[in-house]
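Entry
Fold in token form

___
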Amino acid sequence: MGSPVIQALFGGTFDPIHYGHLRSAEALAQLVGLKQVILLPNHVPPHRPQPEATAQQRLEMVRLAVQGNPLFTVDTRELDRQTPSYTIETLKSFRQEVGKHPLAFIIGQDSLQTIHTWHKWEELLDICHLLVCSRPGYQNSLSTPEVQQWLKKHQVDTPLPLSQKPQGYIYLAATPLLNISATDIRQRHQQGLSCDDLLPPSIQNYIDSQGLYRS
């Protein structure tokens, strides 16, 4: 018997989805041995400005970005909600589905810095592991001693334990540092600059066809 397969979730506004998301997730899958990454577009992100593209447009971009890539699937349960997307509620619904199998939630180092502001953040590791992708300009030292202690208590140095327990660990993955942000892409569109090296051609074509991010 091999190790149990880790279910890995990757939530985001994806306004738009870009190579920073896709290549980080692919590198993480290689490091951890993930067979599948489930992309979860947010409906109403509680902590951020509201998306410029509609929920349907963001979903369509995510689907286009991963078409033909067997690593990725798309889950719409957050978009189907009319209330704010609290990660904890989504994770609980997945936990009910996967039973005692390992469940992981993928975040960036930027999100790790502010995780103590999330709704019921202290409960996250009761439900899943956290897989943290590297981001340029972010340190692993966290904002308060309490959160730093929390990281130290739960951090593992290799991915091996992730498949041995259903939840409870934090793994800081040495993924490539990709300096790509959706904010930068939207600004470049407004200025009429090329984004060809930042996101897949199918997404670029869709943005142009929908007239997104022009104002």
Remarks:
- Residues 57 and 191 are 21 Å apart (CA to CA).
- The chain has a mean pLDDT of 91.
